[in-house]
Amino acid sequence: MNEVKYPSELLENLVNEFHRLPGVGRKTALRYALHLLKEDEADAMNLGNSILRFRAEVSKCRVCNNICDNDLCEICINTKRNHRLICVVESVADVMAVENTAQFNGVYHVLGGVISPMNGIGPADLDIPALVQRVAEGGIDEVILALSPDMEGDTTCLYIYKKLADYNIEISTIARGVAVGNSLEYADEITLGRSIVNRIKYSL
To answer: How far, CA to CA in Å, does 167 sit from each of 130, 177, 204?
Structure first.
């Protein structure tokens, strides 16, 4: 395949940046860049400013690690949620996936990843101590391990289970309605919702 010749170094740089985004090929990146060129300058500036503001100002909830605009996320400050029930997920995208099912009324804990030795990610790279601390402080009845059903997810579930095993709480995991090997983020809402509702007790 011949290397694409760009008429502008600025265009090439922008294409390269778009191409870094997940799922964006070089052709799509080029379409994005050329689209911005046709947009009103004000619209292009709004996009750029939104990206800069998001990167500079978005916060992590100090309790659950969900993203938010303030110190606490909307879920953690919601008094109608069941704060005695924690759903442990890998990422913010997984919080959004579970919320879209409308089948869960507890709160969350975002780990920030899963244990993956192949990628150099160990337990120390995840926010597991904060989860243990939340449980240790009391007031928690159940922790749901809602991680993707693959080797990394299962390894992380086992590690967390061992960390929480001595506490007087129920530890459960989502039912295997989500296909083994699939990412939780991409599961359809009905399947994921049923997996949460029909969760099972975690056991070795």
So the answer is: 15, 28, 16
